[in-house]
Amino acid sequence: MLVSENFLPVAVIMQRTNVAGRWSGVKWETHGVVEDGSDPGTPARVIYDDGNSRQVLFPGFRISLVREEAEDYYLNLTAPEPRIFVLWREDEPGSPKPAFVSVAYGKAARWMDAGENVDGAPMPPEIFAWVGRFVEQHYRPAPQFKRRRT
């Protein structure tokens, strides 16, 4: 698997669940993100289908880490439930496709502000450790200054 200090190849698992209700028959959401060593251009494939729910693996994504977002990564890692954020689009009805993957809170917030579909999937321990090493190396909290009373 090609792993660098600054990027990690991953695959996104999208899950379709049948919903009993009057207005919607199915619900799509991000089920998880896993490390992946697939070749670029590998097509999506169904990895689970029991008739009620279906999981589709979408390989070929990367989590890229940049120093400017190190504080966002730190905030994510120190949250009660660290997440990986997936922006996905439904170009054709009933056929969602992930578009971007990130571990930065700020980037996910900007995507949501733009009206995109964004899900947060639990961060696996091996990805947590990888992001943690990057944060330890590149994040330095801003110094706090005491205010003088006048």
The helix content is 10-25%
Structural class label: alpha+beta
Note the main sheet.
4 strands, antiparallel
Number of strands: 7
Which oligomerization state do the chains in this entry correspond to? Answer: single chain
Strand order of the largest sheet: 2-1-4-3
Give the ordered list of helices and strands.
EEEEHEEHEH
Number of helices: 3
- Our count of domains comes out at 1
Ends: how far apart?
59 Å
Rg, Cα atoms, Å: 18 Å
Q: Unreliable stretches, pLDDT < 50, 5 or more residues?
A: none
- The average pLDDT value, as a whole number, equals 90
Range of strand content: 35-45%
Overall geometry? globular
What does this structure look like?
The chain has 150 residues and is of the alpha+beta class. It has one domain (7-138). 21% of the residues lie in helices and 42% in strands. It has 3 helices and 7 strands, in the order ββββαββαβα. The protein has helices spanning 70-77, 105-113, 125-138; strands spanning 7-18, 26-35, 45-49, 53-64, 83-92, 95-102, 117-122. α1 (70-77) packs across α3 (125-138). The relative contact order is 0.20.
Can you give me a brief rundown of this structure?
The protein is α+β, with helices and mostly antiparallel strands.
